[in-house]
């Protein structure tokens, strides 16, 4: 993630502010894409990959936070399937 931050000029303060406020619009969307690809959340084609996401969030989040993020990750997978079917 630090490589992406350097590449797109995102400071630690910018990142933390975006996460705590829930407003990520102030940060270049390419930064988020870079992070998601780097962590495996997005695959090489730029598509959401739940199978790669779950192990990543398990090592990143703990206890109740993990359960909440796991729930969101699963909802994202359902949303992706709906978009593909539509």
Automatic annotation (TrEMBL):
Which is an annotated GO molecular function term of this record? odorant binding
- InterPro entries with a match to the protein in the record: PBP/GOBP (IPR006170), PBP_GOBP_sf (IPR036728)
Cross-referenced Gene3D superfamilies = Pheromone/general odorant binding protein domain (1.10.238.20)
State the protein's name: Uncharacterized protein
Organism, as annotated:
Spodoptera exigua
